[in-house]
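Narrative of activities, Objective 1.

The group set out to show that a structural description can be obtained from nothing but a protein's sequence at a throughput compatible with the screening campaign. Below is one input-output pair from the validation batch, recorded exactly as produced.
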Amino acid sequence: IQMRVGVAGVWEDSDYARVRNLCDGMEGWEEVYKKGNRSIYMQTIGTSAVTMFKAHISWGDVTAQTLFDTLHDGDYRHKWDKHMTKSVDIGIINPNNDIGYYAIRSVTPIRPRDFVLQRSWLDSGKEKLLCSHSVCHDDYPPMAGHIRATTFLSGYLVRENGKGCDLTYVTHTDPGGKIPKWLINRVSKVMAPKVLDKLYKAALAYPEWKAKNRPNWKPWSYPDQLMDAPRISLAKCEPRDYVQEVMDGSGSEEENENESD
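Output recorded for this entry:
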């Protein structure tokens, strides 16, 4: 899964199959949280010190299509994701693969993070996959005052379940900087259930919001709406190692190495 990091291109059926198998398989996963219909698992992938997490939950009052739309809709993301400070739709590779820029706030004195992510999705009706991984783009180096984070893989597997849906979410992200890996893993385990709660509330409110905000605009489902979208030049997405700006006057502990305090 990790070998795609930094590489932009069209996903194949085999790529989606690997994510599906990761979501459905239990080999190597350790259950670290269970409450009601939600479970959180973790495992170490390869030599990475950052743990991969998997969450599974069922919702009886959110349809698979509504959840898929909620995850996709960039306009709505600004409303429900209070951590996001900036997002840019850079362009599309094809109707099922796009690239975007995303920046999030943090708690002082930890510096904000930003990402350039390729999203890839597959909708086969009763089952839907939405996956992301970090790539590069010449026009979007790390923003001043930010640390460029790396998403090895983020994947949502959504399946119809009667009038509701089952969601399996996997995430493997290194925020970079000098935050100790043990602290990243501990915070991730605590935050995972809260992320599910936030997504659930967003999905419940989405139909009413969408009815008032470009209700027919769903390019992830209607590719003809992408006719005027900017096309990605893969020549601008060559893998690279960014040299992080460290003298930004913020005095953050990325430089002072006090994050573990």
